[in-house]
Amino acid sequence: MSRFRHAVKDRDQHIMTLRIACCVLVFFLLITCAGWMLAPNKLTVHNPPDLRTGSTRPWWEVPASSVYSFAFYIFQQLNAWPKNGEVDYPAKIHALSAYLTPGCQDYLNTEAQKRSNAGELTDRVRVVYEIPGRGYQSKSVSVISRDNWVVRLDLVADEYFHAEPVKRALVRYPLKVVRWEGDAERNPFGLALDCYDGVPQRLEAALPTEIPAKSGVFQ
User: Fold this and answer.
1) What is the maximum span of the chain, computed from C-alpha positions, in angstroms?
2) Are 205 and 219 in contact (CB under 8 A)?
3) Is 175 exposed, middle or buried (0-12, 13-18, 19+ CB in 10 A)?
């Protein structure tokens, strides 16, 4: 009888051990499910434009070339006034608000109001584009920290009053770019312009040979 009692006891202990093991497995399964549910369903990975040699980088790192492309695209859109700067400029600020920090948006709205009051935007058409040969270079972007950059854009700014060209300027714009994870639906880049890092600098007074001069354009 003693042998049978020990066998029953051993069986009960084994069953208890299996139950404890099952409870532990269920506990870890619940933790795994919770982690899976809380994991982000979208992940933005920035890749450099030339992948012929491959690229290995942490997913949170934003390449300098991507920061430059973002800054140039948004800044160019802000300065694209196809018909009337008095209407187009505030409209562009509003349309691109997801790509601007709140402070930068306030600054641009104030600037637009001041220029409008001074009569600098009425019937003004404006376009900016890169100076040929002065696109992205290694020195075009300064990395301040993992989430902050300073981008230097060398651009040509052309302005017209109705159909008459009235201004052409070659300017270096120092722009601040920050990581901005506010609204991934409206801003998939995860970046935002924080306006200027200093006063824009006028470059050469004379037009380079690569840029065809237009009659009636003033420097």
Assistant:
1) 116
2) yes
3) buried
Question: What pairs with residue 191 in β-bridges?
Answer: 179
pTM: 0.70
DSSP β-bridge partners for residue 128: 157
- Burial level of 52, CB count in 10 A (0-12/13-18/19+)? exposed
- pLDDT for res 208: 44
Alpha helices in 118-183 (DSSP H): none
**All residues at 6 or more sequence positions from 202 whose CB lies less than 8 Å from its CB, including other chains:** 169, 170, 171
Nearest 5°: CA angle at 215, between 210 and 219? Answer: 70
How do residues 194-214 score in pLDDT, each as one tens digit?
999 999 998 865 444 444 444
Contact 173, 200 (CB under 8 A): yes
Give how far the C-alpha of residue 199 lies from the chain's centroid of Cα atoms, to the nearest Å: 22
- How does pLDDT run across 10-21, given as a tens digit for each residue? 777 878 888 888
Of 53-62, 64-73, 74-83, 116-125, the poorest mean pLDDT is in: 53-62
Query: Which residues have CB under 8 Å from 75's CB, separation 6+?
Result: 128, 153, 155, 173, 175, 193
Q: What DSSP state is assigned to residue 31? A: H
Nearest-angstrom CA–CA distance, 57 and 10: 55
**Where does the pLDDT of residue 191 fall: very low under 50, low under 70, confident under 90, or very high at 90 and above?**
very high
What is the residue type of 148?
N
